[in-house]
Amino acid sequence: TIILGIETSCDETGVGLVRLDGSGAVELLADEVASSVEQHARFGGVVPEVASRAHLEAMVPTMRRAFDAAGLKMSDVDAITVTCGPGLAGALLVGVSAAKAYALSLGVPLYGANHLAGHVAADTLEHGPLPTPCLALLVSGGHTQLLKVDGLATSITEIGSTIDDAAGEAYDKVARVLDLPYPGGPPIDAAARRGNPRAIAFPRGLTGPRDARNDFSFSGLKTAVARWVEAREPEPIPVDDVAASFQEAVADVLTAKAVRACVDEGIGTMVISGGVAANSRLKELAAERCAAAGITLRVPRPRLCTDNGAMMAALGAHLVAAGVEASSLDLSADPALPVSTISV
Ligand code: ATP
Ligand code: MG
Ligand code: FE
């Protein structure tokens, strides 16, 4: 069974192809991404209208590249999965409209599916089936959540989330403060590796004894970094040390809370996904703390952590394998789709 995945929730046009075999194994056949990130860089964030137009222009060429890479024809496709939320309304609509047109013309079932569940499903392309229950730490540009996954296609429950900024958003805002380019994750990660993570004691949000156990807060940290830099001016800013100290605060809170949630829930497997899962210190600290707590850690390679179509194709394979009903062709985009709605 060949499944086509289409992703357009933000600024990446992603087209992926996977094969689901009779045993339930999912094999990655193609993963093509066209990004409009460079068009947004000078604005310091994604401009929705620019993203929508870029998706329109990139959809057909990206589709073609994916089929070429897999050595498949359109007529080989047995089912289509498309991100129908959460994300930018105009951007989502480009993917949803394209997917409907392909599904109608090919006469195959269409699954409107959740981008966040797709981020978690990405890991199965690298590490195989996810044992359940497992805990997913989803850390991306727009979301920071702790999820209890009882079935990738059937049951995902949010047990905690950020009460203000997402972790990736904090990276992007701190990069601005430090005059580093957008998106901020990669340049801060690189600077942090040259700096001293203990140089500055930045706050760890929501870690007090009476604070919500599974929730996160990063806006205080972002403000603390901005205040520290302001107070320092006009002296030169030790960018590497600030980046390392900020990164340490983020990785510390994320891993401490995720590991504790596993212990609380009696869960033995943790998967980290979303763009921030590409972060070197987060992976290192998570590996250390999971090992100490006897938890198996899974983190997909960076390419599968950021937005792509293969993750949606993988989620589609799990939906098909679980016998979940396909969507109606009048499905629409839902910018605020909750993670518990895995498919519509
Ligand atoms: P969402 O998935 O919540 O809708 P999104 O799709 O925009 O948001 P992703 O593409 O999953 O988010 O991730 C993008 C984010 O990941 C950006 O904020 C970026 O700065 C961050 N990021 C990428 N690489 C790294 C890294 N090495 N370290 C930290 N953050 C990173
Ligand atoms: Mg992106
Ligand atoms: Fe994403």
From TrEMBL:
Catalytic activity from the UniProt record: L-threonylcarbamoyladenylate + adenosine(37) in tRNA = N(6)-L-threonylcarbamoyladenosine(37) in tRNA + AMP + H(+)
Name of a matching Pfam family: TsaD
Superkingdom of the source species: Bacteria
Note on how the cofactor is bound: Binds 1 Fe(2+) ion per subunit.
Residues bound to substrate: 138-142, 172, 185, 189, 279
Major localization listed first in the record, in broad terms: cytoplasm
Cofactor(s) it depends on: Fe(2+)
Record-linked InterPro entries: ATPase_NBD (IPR043129), Gcp-like_dom (IPR000905), KAE1/TsaD (IPR017861), Peptidase_M22_CS (IPR017860), TsaD (IPR022450)
Enzyme type, top EC level: transferase
Domain Gcp-like: 27-313
Record keywords: Acyltransferase, Cytoplasm, Iron, Metal-binding, Transferase, tRNA processing
Family statement drawn from the similarity comment of this UniProt entry: Belongs to the KAE1 / TsaD family.
HAMAP family referenced in this protein's UniProt entry, alphabetically: TsaD (MF_01445)
NCBIfam families: gcp_kae1 (TIGR00329), T6A_TsaD_YgjD (TIGR03723)
Protein name: tRNA N6-adenosine threonylcarbamoyltransferase
Lineage: Bacteria, Bacillati, Actinomycetota, Actinomycetes, Pseudonocardiales
Gene name per UniProt: gcp
